[in-house]
Amino acid sequence: MNALFDGISAVLEPTTMLCMGIGVVIGMLVGMFPGITATMAVALASSFTMTLDPVPGLAVLLTIYVAANFGDRIPSILINTPGTPASIATTFDGYPMAKNGQAGLALIVSALVSAIGIIASMVLFAFASVPLAKLALAFGPSEMFAVVVLAMTIMISISSKSMAKGLLAGMIGLFIATIGRDPISGDARFTFGIRDLNSGLDFIAVIIGLFGIAELFDQLLTHRPHSQKPISALGRWWPTRDEYKRITKPTAVGGIVGLIVGIIPGAGGDIAGLLGWDRAKSLSKTKATFGKGNIEGIAASDTASSATLGGSLTTTMALGIPGDSVMAVMIGSMIVWGIQPGPSLFVNQPSLVVTITAIMVIATMITLAINLIRMPMMVKLLDMPVHYIWATVLVFCLVGTYATTNNIFTVVVMLIFGVIGLILKRCNIPASPIVLGLILGPLAESNLRRSLLIDGPTGLISKPISATLITFALIAIVAAVLTPVLTKRRNQKIAQES
Amino acid sequence: MLKTGSGDNFLSPDADVDELDFTAKPSRTLEITIAAIALTLSALAYYLAYNIELRFDPGGINARWWPELLSLIAIGLSGLLLVASLTVSEISRGDVEESNADGWSRMLKALALTSIYVFAWAIVGYVIPTVIYLAVLLWIFGLRSKVGLIAFPVITTGFIYLLFHYMLRVPL
User: What is the distance between the alpha carbons of residues B77 and A18, in angstroms, rounded to a whole number?
Assistant: First the structure.
């Protein structure tokens, strides 16, 4: 009861509420501007939240995560360009609705179902995270290593177009994590006599480089001016009673899809949105109009993509395994604050878990309220010249990185990783597995070493839980390799038959 | 194909594919080069891991073995990539978007300017280099409005200084 009271009262502090307000503004803007992803914004914000206490800092980061999930729907609906990948499926019915003079209705339905999705997922977090953490508490080094392997392989198999490139990216991340002093013997590894490298590479600098600078440089390379003007005739806003009835079923379908997808490490709102839209279409009586401005389509896709947030948070907090790329960045910030996500968090700091839940719920309510006020300014912001956004993001990346250590060496590291990230991006090598490897590297190494010392080389396969998890990891790799081959063969067969 | 914020492409139900397809052209030579570089770097990583200096070698599991293991797996994966790039019939660049005509020039200028700025910041301090940096950056990005080139850098520099130096107590 004390944990509940402490957790909620920490959120109601004026500083925390102010931080949430700042997070809502940043998150909405981030979501609205195509090209700036929630991961990039959280990475950037994590640099200047380092100087804050953990609760206000988490309030900023989590609120950006939530608000970006609302803001990214606006350009999807008004200019047919998703603000972040999570709103890809929103364009399918959102933009056609806007073209039909129902932009206001699409925006309101999207905001309502997004809020429903997040709140439902937070209920899942509240009920599922404690049992999951209790189960994880019983894990020994073999099991923990197996969990890390499983999480990495699932994330890589989902997020990478090429399994080999994804695994290679994971290896790069794990290798970068070895830079610095060996945690057991204290031997210097890959420091080349540079004193700044003794404690390893600054995590925040690496992620701002990979997600901030690399993304921005890629935009500088590929940017083409918009030919599409935002739709300004917004039409009516509120759904009729019949429309509320129509969106009930697709909202439920999307919600279930989102909750399941959210739990899987690496699978985020983009995958959930597409799956939710597809499932709702197949179960709808009006499937012929899906993709042509059907209100059920937008309800399903937006509930599904939003409902991943709580599932992702559950995996992150209960197991210490990031549920998506935003959570990977968030774990980095939490470690800097001295908070180690994972099963022990629920034992050591139960009030913090309550605080996180309260922040997510309050942030959802505030953002929903702002969306329902229907600010016409939102539409005007979409016309903002892109060079101001680029310059602002670039200078914030530089100053934000400097703020983490007050050392210009960190800024140089960040720039180097920006260039590395751009090269990897152009080579179609994903950045998310690198960050995952960087976060999970010390956990994987220490647990594997302990497992080998305690149980010997057969420990990983002789224990039932670790053996099962390793088997699942192998299945994930084999499935990711075989699925495209089998799909191609099936398509060829269908083409030959027809 | 439409372009998402993160660089992902997707196909919406009524998208005009031919009109909006900006996906980069596949190149076997590029894929072979990527795999060859990955293989070389993985081998270099193994060499560096093998040569980690140990103050005390207990034998077996020491500070070397984990980086050695990772680099050996990376060598294997790079080898697989190389074989795939030589043998696979269909080469794909995935979601990578074609670079724009003036994209490389814009990006390289921004990178060079940023490197100079970081150097200047370390020597001169934050305020003056940042104002000049932002103004030149906006010029590179295509802004030609005199008001914008002066007002935006001054306001942004001032705002960041207030935010970081006074509110977050970061000594800029």
Answer: 48
